[in-house]
Structures are given as structure tokens and as C-alpha cells.
Amino acid sequence: MTELLAQPAFWAALFSVTLIQIALGADNLIIITIIANKLPEARRKQAIQLGLLLAMALRIVLLLILS
């Protein structure tokens, strides 16, 4: 494990994956907000929270499958 942390390729890959996850998170937020704005005011907050929760859960499941 220590050897892995000393390799620049590991840090470059980690940085790339982190940037991709941030971009995907922002994309999810934008899309979910656009879709939720079509709902009645009373349901918007709930729809946004549920959408973000499901997006996060799916991303975690997919990362666990890949690792």
C-alpha cells in the first residue's frame, strides 16, 4: 500500500476521478433542479432531495462494483 501512495500515477488517477465526480455531481444537481422546477412548489424540495439521494446512492454502488 505504501508503494502505491508513492507513485505519481496513483495521485494523477485519484485527481482525475475526483474531478470527474465533482463534474458529475454538478451535472446531476442542474438536471434534477430543472426537472424539479416543473413540479408544484410543495413537492420541489422533496423531489430535489430524493433525486440527489438516489444519484449519490447509485454512484456509490457503481464505484463499489468497479473496485
Q: Layout of SSEs?
A:
Elements: H1 2-5, H2 8-36, H3 41-66
Helix pairs in contact: 2-3
Describe the structure in your own words:
The protein has one domain (13-66). Helix content is 88%, strand content 0%. The chain is elongated. The protein contains three helices and no strands. Helix 2 packs antiparallel against helix 3. By secondary structure, it is mainly alpha-helical. The protein starts with a helix and ends with a helix. The mean pLDDT is 90.
**Main sheet: strands, sense, barrel:** none
Rg over alpha carbons: 17 Å
Helix content: over 70%
Termini separation: 15 Å
**Judging from the principal axes of the Cα atoms, what is the shape?**
elongated
Low-confidence blocks of residues? none
Question: Structural class of the helix and strand makeup?
Answer: mainly alpha
Mean pLDDT score, rounded? 90
Number of helical elements = 3
Secondary-structure element order, N to C: HHH
> How many discrete structural domains?
1
Number of strands: 0
Q: Assess the beta-strand content as a share of residues.
A: under 5%
Can I get a quick summary?
By secondary structure, the protein is an all-alpha fold.
Which key phrases capture this entry?
single chain; 67 residues; mainly alpha; 3 helices
